[in-house]
Write a structure and sequence with these properties.
The chain is α+β, with helices and mostly antiparallel strands and about 140 residues long. It has four helices and eight strands. The strands form two sheets. A five-stranded antiparallel beta sheet has the order 1-8-3-5-6, with helices on one face. A three-stranded antiparallel beta sheet has the order 2-7-4. About 25% of the residues are buried.
Length: about 140
């Protein structure tokens, strides 16, 4: 069994930017030479998240709106009281969605559903350059 670790960098615009990274993840599998296994995608940072959605305009709008109902902009966050950096809600949202996702692949192809894409969610209040760690395990 082989383990290969790769990194990709992405640049986000700011809070609620959703970036489809499916092709980059698929390319990493192809380049690895591993045919069957799993790939874990992990964002280094506490205000970004990784998940899957159907990457279409409706859901790209709906998803951040749903998160803002759970962690609204206009309430008190202890993180903000301590650090005064304006992103307490960003940390809460990112913790809810999570920093990683593991997807199986077979014959070098991600086993995603027809309308399912892997996305990075920028939840910080400013533009960021993000480092995504991809760990491919298989044979």
């Amino acid at each position: 069994m082989a383990v290969i670790t790769k990194q990709i960098k992405i640049s986000s615009k700011s809070e609620n930017d959703i970036i489809d990274i499916t092709e980059q993840v698929a390319n990493a599998i192809s380049e690895s030479g591993i045919s069957n296994g799993t790939i874990t995608v992990f964002v280094s940072g506490s205000t970004g998240a990784i998940t899957t959605i159907e990457y279409e305009p409706g859901l790209v709008n709906d998803f951040p709106e749903m998160l803002s109902r759970i962690a609204p902009d206009d309430i008190n966050y202890e993180h903000e009281q301590r650090w005064h950096d304006g992103n307490g809600r960003s940390h809460v949202k990112s913790s809810l969605v999570g920093p990683s996702l593991t997807v199986p692949f077979k014959d070098g192809q991600l086993l995603l559903g027809t309308w399912q894409q892997i996305v990075f969610l920028e939840l910080d209040t400013r533009a960021r350059t993000r480092n995504l760690v991809l760990q491919i395990i298989g044979e």
